[in-house]
Amino acid sequence: MTTTEAPATPVRAAADPPAAVRAVRRWGFLLRRLGFYAAAAAAAIVLNFLLPRLMPGDPSSAIVEELQRVSGQQVPPETLESIRAIFGDPDQNLAQQFVGYLGQLARFDLGVSVVNFPVPVSELVLEALPWTLLLVGTTTVLAFVLGTGLGVIAGWKAGSRLDSILTPLTAFLSSVPYFWVALLALWVFGFVLGWFPLSGGYDANLAEGFNLPFLASVLHYGALPAATIVFSAFGGWLLGMRNMTVTTVREDYVLLAQAKGLSRGRVILRYAARNAMLPSFTGFAMALGGVIGGALLTETVFSYPGIGYLLFESLNKRDYPMMQGVFLIVTLATLLANLLADSLYVVLDPRIREQG
Amino acid sequence: MVTQFVPDTDRPDAGTTSARRADGDVLHVTGLTVEYVTDGDPVRACADVTFTLRRGEILGVAGESGSGKSTLITALTRLQRPPAVTTGGSIVFYPRDGGPAIDLVTATPKALRALRWTSLSIVLQSAMDALNPVMRLGAQFADALRTHDRTLTKDAAWARAAELLATVGISGDRARSYPHELSGGMRQRASIALALACGPELVVMDEPTTAVDVVMQRQILAQVLRLRRTLGFAVVFVTHDLSLLLELADRIAIMYAGRIVELGTARELYDDPRHPYTRGLRDSFPPLHAPLTRLTGIPGTPPDLRRPPSGCPFHPRCPQRFAGCDTDLPELVTKGGHSVACRLHEPTGRPDPVPDPASGPASGPASARTEGGAS
After folding, report:
1. Which of A49-63, B254-268, B284-298, B360-374 has the highest mean pLDDT?
2. Closest Cα of chain A to B289: distance in Å?
3. What average pLDDT does this structure show over B248-259?
4. List of chain A residues whose C-beta atoms are within 8 Å of the C-beta of residue B132
5. DSSP H or E run through B206
6. Beta-carbon contacts of residue A145 (< 8 Å; ≥ 6 apart)
C-alpha cells in the first residue's frame, strides 16, 4: 500500500479466504478425486468377481475339463484352486469365494491360460504390456502433439491458405475407417513394396535384449503400425484444436497480450494455445486411459504382440481366464491413467481446483 | 448508470492545461478512416476522425453504441482484426524523449511491438476477460515487463508487479493469485496497474468502469486521476457515459455515426453544447443543482452504417435541421479551441432555425448561449 492512498480504497484482501483455507480446499479436491477412483476400482473388481458367477452352469468345472482336453494331462491341484477362486467354487458361499478371490488378486494370480497351458495369465499380460505401451502410448502422444500443434497454426490464421487446405483435407482423411487405412498400408508398404515386415513386433531371429540390432528391428517392425495410428488419430486433434483456437484468439486476453507487445510465439503459446487446449486435454486424458487396452485393430492387423492381440486371440479361442485377466488389468490401468490425467488437469486449469 | 455532475477538484483547471501544452502533443490523429470490408459495400465505422492529444491530457470520447468508439480504440492501438481495415489517415505518435515521430498506421510490426506498453497501453472494458485465466497475476505483469526490459530478472519483475498492484490499492501478495480469485473491482484495478507497468505515455481506456458498481467506479476514477498526476500519462477514455466524462476528462469528443461531431473542453460541452446531438446527450441526464425538469431524450435511433444518411448523418433525428442538412456534410470547424461539425455554426448564412419542439425549458438559454459562443 502506498502511504498516499485515499481512504476510499480499502484493502480487499481481507475478504478473500486465507491461504490455509485455500490449501485445505485444494487437498480436499484431490482426496475427493482419489475416493472416487478407489470406489470405481472396487466396483470393477466386484463386477469381475460376479460376472463368471452369473453364468449358467459351473464355468470353473467347464474350464478345468477344457484344460484337460487341450493339454491331455491331469490339472495340478493348485491350478484347480486358482481357477475355482476366479470362476466360482460350487462348494463355497459367495462371501468365502470373495475373500479367496481377493487373496488371489493380492498375489497377482489371474489363473492359467487355457490355450497356453500351463503359462499363468499374469505372465502373458506382463509380457504383452510393454509392447502395447510402446506402440500405442507413443503414437497416442505423438498424434496429440502433432494434431494439436497443427491445429493451433491453422486456427491462429483461420481462413489462411494453410487452414483452407489442411482443415478440409484432415476432415476427409480422419473419416476414412482405420481398419481400411491399416490394411491398405500393410498391402502397399508391406506386401507390394516390401519395405516393412508383414507381422510381428520384432525379428524373431535376433536375441531379445538391449542390443542395437534388436532395437533396430523393433523400430522397423513398429514403424508401419505406428504410422497408421498417428495418421488416423491426429486429424481429430487437429480439428478440435483448430476450432477452439479460432474462438480463443477472439478473447480479450489474447488481444491484451498482443497489446503488451509480447512476441508472437509467446502470445500464441502462453495465451491462445494454453487456453484453447484445455478441452482437448480432456479428450487426451481419455485416450491415454485407452492406451492399455491396446489398439485392438492395429495389433490384430499387424499381429503385434500387445494386449490387444492377446485379447483378440483369447476371444478367438475362448480362453476365459485370459479374457478375465485382461479385462481386469485394462480396467484398473484405465482408471489409473484417468486419475493421473485428472490430476494433471488440475495443474493446467487453476479454476478447477476450488470447485471440485 | 447515473453519475451526477459535480465540480471535481481533481480536474486540472485551464491554467495547468496550457502549461502541459507547452511540452507538446503526444498524438496527432488526422483523417483516420476505418472500414469493415464485407462481401457487400464496405461499412465505414470511423470516418475522417481528426484530433490532437496533448501530453498528460485526458480526452474523453463519448457516443452511443455503434458510433464507432470501439473501432476507434482498436484503430488507435493498431489492434484491429479483419474485417476492420484502416483505409485512410494517420496516427502520428510523438515520443516523450524527443525521438522521431512515428505514424502508427504505416509502422512495421516490429516498430509497433517496441512501442507497445512502453509508450502505448490499453485497459479493456471487461477485466474479467482481459486477464489470462490460467496465469498468475504476477506472471502477466512479469511477461510484459521482461519483454520490454531484457535485463530484468524474474524475481525483480515479480517484485515490480507487487509494487504496481500496491499503487492501485491491492496488497502485493495478491500477485500470486489467479484472476478468478480476485473480485471484479480488484481485477479492473489490476488491469489499470498492468497498463501502467512500463510507464506508457498514452493509455487507451475502453469503458473500464462499466463492469463495476458505482462505488468502485468512483474509486477507480479517483485512482486514474491520481496516477495521471504523478506519472503524467495521457488518456483516451472511451465511454457511452457523458456525465462521467464531464467529471473526468479535460476535453471531450462526441462521436456520431463514426464521425467526431463536437470536440471541446468538458466545461464548454456542458455549458455550451453547440451540436444538437451533444445538447440532446447533455439534456438526457438530470443536473444535480437545478430545479427538477422533465428529461428529454433524443428521438430516433442511430443510423445504419451500411446505409448512412446523406448529408449530415444526424439530420434525420435533428430538431434544428434546415434546408441543405440532408445534402451537405458539415465539416469539423474550430473556433476558439471548440470544434463542431454542424451547419448551424458554419459561417455561410443559415436560415431561421426550425423551432425546437423536442427540448424542454432548458432549450431557451441553451440556444442563446449557442449563438453567443459562436463568436
Report:
1. B254-268
2. 24
3. 90
4. 253, 257, 270-271, 274-275
5. strand B202-206
6. none
Q: Based on the structure, what is the number of domains in chain A?
A: 2
Q: Is B223 on the interface with A (CB under 8 A)?
A: yes
Task: Report the alpha-carbon distance of residue A166 to residue A150 in Å, rounded.
Answer: 9
- A160 CB neighbours in chain B (<8 A) are none
Residues A232 and A188 in one domain: yes
The model's pLDDT over A21-36, given as tens digits with 9 standing for 90+, comes to 766 766 777 788 889 9
Residues of B in contact with A262 (CB under 8 A): 143-144, 147
The bridge status of strand B25-36 relative to strand B84-93 is: antiparallel
Work out the minimum CA distance from A258 to partner chain B, whole angstroms.
8
**Closest CB to B167 among A2, A251, A271:** A2
Which residues are within 8 A (CB) of A333 and not within 5 positions of it... i.e. 6 or more apart? A289, A292, A293
Residues A210 and A61 in one domain: no
Highest mean pLDDT of the ranges A275-279, A337-341, B353-357: A275-279
In a domain, A340, yes or no: yes
Asked whether the beta carbons of residue B132 and residue A258 sit closer than 8 angstroms, the reply is no
Task: Kindly report the pTM of this predicted structure.
Answer: 0.76
Residue of B nearest to A264 (CA): B113
In a domain, A241, yes or no: yes
The stretch B249-261 carries a mean pLDDT of 90
Cell reading at B27: 498524438
Q: Which domain holds residue A47?
A: 19-106
Give the pLDDT confidence score for residue B1 in this predicted structure.
43
Q: Which residue of B has its CA nearest to A8?
A: B219
A217 and A131 within one domain: yes
Closest CA to B58 of B233, B261, B239: B233
Handedness of CA A157, A158, A161, A163 (dihedral sign): positive
**Which of A2, A15, A253 lies at the smallest CB-CB distance from B130?**
A253
A195 and A168 housed in the same domain? yes
A85 and A179 housed in the same domain: no
Question: What kind and span of H or E run contains B46?
Answer: strand B43-54
Residue B83, chain A, CB below 8 Å: the answer is no
Q: Do B186 and A5 count as a contact with CB atoms less than 8 A apart?
A: no
pLDDT, tens digit, for every residue of B78-105?
988 888 889 888 999 988 877 788 888 8
Instruction: Tell me whether 0.85 is exceeded by the ipTM.
Output: no
DSSP string for A285-339: HHHHHHHTT--HHHHHHTT-SSHHHHHHHHHHTT-HHHHHHHHHHHHHHHHHHHH
Q: Which of A93-97, A184-188, B24-28, B35-39 has the lowest mean pLDDT?
A: A93-97
Residues of A with CB under 8 A from a CB of B: 1-2, 4-6, 8-13, 15-16, 251-253, 255-263, 266, 270-271, 274-275, 278, 348-351
Closest-approach residue (CA) in chain B for A4: B167
pLDDT band at A354 (very low <50, low <70, confident <90, very high): low
Q: What percent of chain B has pLDDT over 90?
A: 18
Give pLDDT, residue A239: 92
